[in-house]
Records
---
Amino acid sequence: MERLAINASAGRRVIGPWHINNVNGYHGRLKNGLRGFKGVASSHQPHCLGWFRALERFRPTHLTPPALLALAIGI
């Protein structure tokens, strides 16, 4: 995954499809979503991020727990 730096103090707010408000919003939702894990070991971060992505994308559809688990682990 490529990292991009958006330098807001230099007046730059957009790089291609990335807007600083979208980045800040996603970061806030991610921090709030990981709060329930009460600290995540580095070895478990991909799993927690999988849960976050699955819940972020599919929560409005009210999927069953087995379907969410399948999405989180990539089945």
---
Amino acid sequence: MKELYLQLLCQNKMRFNNLKIIPTNLIPAFLNAVTFPAQKCFNTLQEQNFEALIFSKTTSSAVHSAKIEGENVVLSDLIKNIKQNTPYKTAYINPTKDLYNAYCFAQENTLTLQNLLKTHQLITRSFLTKKAQGKIRTVDEIIFNEHGNIVYTAATKETVSEEFKNFIHDLEILKTTTLTLTETFYFASMLHLVLVKIHPFEDGNGRLCRLVEKWFLAEKLNRNAWSLDLEKNYHEQQNHYFTTLNKLGLFYEEVSYNKGLPFLLLSIQQLKKQCQ
């Protein structure tokens, strides 16, 4: 097993040696941890009538992702607002409805830098000033928990633009690289992880990162990936979600992605749940 691990590690370094910021050293451990037939499970997803599910899946994704950030919209209220134009207070409904619209935009557009920035604009329309929407932040970012304690200090204002540029560089490489299904899940989760650690925007980073993860899966696999309940799983395991994020380190410069395997496995484990 050790020899196989080292062999895979060597092969992956050769295949992905053009990446600047996305770590690849956990690929062997990730592949070794996936002990169920992932491709067969995804094939089961493809057998569903996705077009019949897309509205319910998209509204669910938006609601659960927004709840992770402290929003409290009830799923049925979002559905009534979209379908029947039922009025609610804008502070209650708009942040989640904007996120729903961002998912709809992503489902109809390719994952590029321009579209990623447009998606951030849509997500933050109701809670960021217009000049901050879709724009890399120019201030330092410190993340606090609900008790007011510092849990993370993101890339500095001096380095955030370069780190985000490296992220986009790697994203473009991965989009054109042939990957197995399991490798695709690895990189989708790692894109989520690295982007949230960079924290390139003033707000809306978590919502955007979760959307980008699924967006990448849908582009590399197929449209049925949008029906994965990743956001619901993250919300239901919210304490574990944040614990696995925070254990990588307090400061961006000291982030240890070697500790990221528990986080990376969350999404592919959700695939397993959905095909059982």
